[in-house]
Amino acid sequence: MNIKTLLSRIQKTSHTFDVTGLSLNTQSLQKGDIFVAVQGTQKHGSEFIQNAIDKGCIAVLVEDRNIQCSVPSIRINHLSSYLSDLAQTFYKEAQNIKLIGVTGTNGKTSVSLFISQLLEALNVRTGVIGTLGISHSDNNTSNTTPDIFTIYKSLQEYSKKGIEVAIIEASSHALTQNRLSGLAFEQAIFTNLTQDHLDYHETMEQYREAKGKLFSNSKAQTVIINRDDENHSYFLDVAEDKMIKTFGIDDFSDYQLSKKGFICRLFNFVFELPLLGYFNLSNALAAFVSIKSLGYSNDLVIPKLANLSPPSGRMQKLDRNNIWIDYAHTPNALSNALQTLHLHYPESKLRVVFGCGGDRDKSKRQQMGKIASELAHSIILTNDNPRNEQPENIIKDILVGVKIENNTQVILDRKIAINTAITTLNEDEVLLIAGKGHEITQIIGSQVLPFSDIEIALDALI
């Protein structure tokens, strides 16, 4: 695309070169891209201009008149407010795909994957953008939380591959930072709201308002809300005049525990839902209502609920029935995971391995310690992603809430902690390894090191 066309909605330019892509991040920048230097969450993009040039960017868009560099630099006032315009102009085909947005503290990944699984079973090709990366039925690529250009580029690639529906996890950070700006969602789904990210949003009210942007700003045609959550009325109000549908566990006329999950009755259908935990009853219903809202009948959708499978690292059972890995890194998620194992293994003692992330919401550490001490019989506290905090200080914060000190070990090395938990696990015990789930790295200081709870645990079982 010619630079004149790219900037046609923003300002005139005398330049005439062609652009092959847009980039906010030098790590993903490709030769021929234009680098857009705006303020990031921690640093300003102008600090990375030379790096972008070294990687082959053809020009830079800047806000600062004083930028001098060896490629054309085009100054645009209030550049960050035009990111959506740039994305919509360059990635025109991104708008050809039907979009479903899922937001909430917990359940976003599961609901997104369940919707994808159900649609694929109905012969609808789908893509998912979220915590597990950018994936579709032909590929699965791990990625960090996408910026606006990465999202638009991914949707355009989906369109070219013939993908019809994309499900996007809408995090509070992405909504606050307008990473989904300009996207027209067919559906907006709310799962639940509990404490998380207060290091960023400061208060629960601000956190809730951030989530609400998906319903107030996305122009979603249909809003699907979990009426079991105490915040549901807020989101109903935010949704205003949109088509509103709700779901709640009482939509099931009956459900009973089974070895794999639950035996459920929904309308006139009885089936086994192969997912553990009451929260997955809710997640499955969210996906069901989503598919129904796309026009599919009960006869087509409900039988396929019996074939749902959990995402990687979400209540994932290892080779032995008594070892589970879950992404639970909030008080509510940890409580749900532990209560789920109590529910399905009532005769077993429960051991948990977990830590808390550094440079993040410190107030949840004591809460998670309290929850673990109330619901687990034994605890091993370890590193999560300590980042730039001293691991010992994070553990001290957790220990404030722990009430069973005699049954608590501290093993800072997460690999040793997992190995110890598994090799000393008794037959009458169930182990939960919580906090990192699907993640394949660990952040210690400024280092991002390879690390997988799943791989470490499987190695320990050999």
| Helical content class | 25-40%
What is the terminal separation in angstroms? 54 Å
Number of E-type strands: 23
Write down the CATH class of the largest domain: Alpha Beta
Q: Mind telling me the C-alpha Rg?
A: 23 Å
CATH fold name of the largest domain? UDP-N-acetylmuramoyl-L-alanine:D-glutamate ligase
Name the quaternary structure: single chain
The number of helical runs is 16
Shape: globular
Largest sheet: 8 strands, mixed
Number of domain units:
3
Helix/strand-derived class? Answer: alpha/beta
Query: In the CATH hierarchy, what is the superfamily of the largest domain?
Result: Mur-like, catalytic domain
What key phrases describe this protein's structure?
single chain, 462 residues, alpha/beta, Udp-n-acetylmuramoylalanyl-d-glutamate--2,6- Diaminopimelate Ligase, Chain: A, domain 1, UDP-N-acetylmuramoyl-L-alanine:D-glutamate ligase, Protein-Tyrosine Phosphatase, Chain A, 8-stranded mixed β-sheet, 16 helices, 23 strands, globular
Structural features, described:
- The structure is a single chain.
- The protein folds into three domains: 3-81, MurE/MurF, N-terminal domain (Udp-n-acetylmuramoylalanyl-d-glutamate--2,6- Diaminopimelate Ligase, Chain: A, domain 1, 3-Layer(aba) Sandwich); 92-307, UDP-N-acetylmuramoyl-L-alanine:D-glutamate ligase; 316-461, Protein-Tyrosine Phosphatase, Chain A (Alpha-Beta Complex).
- The protein has 16 helices and 23 strands.
- The protein has helices at residues 3-6, 49-54, 83-90, 108-121, 148-160, 172-176, 198-201, 204-216, 232-239, 278-293, 298-301, 331-344, 363-375, 391-399, 414-423, 453-461; strands at 21-23, 33-36, 59-62, 73-75, 98-103, 126-130, 133-136, 139-141, 165-169, 187-190, 222-226, 243-247, 254-257, 262-266, 269-273, 316-317, 323-326, 349-354, 378-381, 408-410, 429-434, 441-444, 447-450.
- The protein has an eight-stranded mixed sheet, sandwiched between helices. A six-stranded mixed sheet has the order 16-17-21-18-19-20, with helices on both faces.
- Helix 4 packs across helix 10 (278-293).
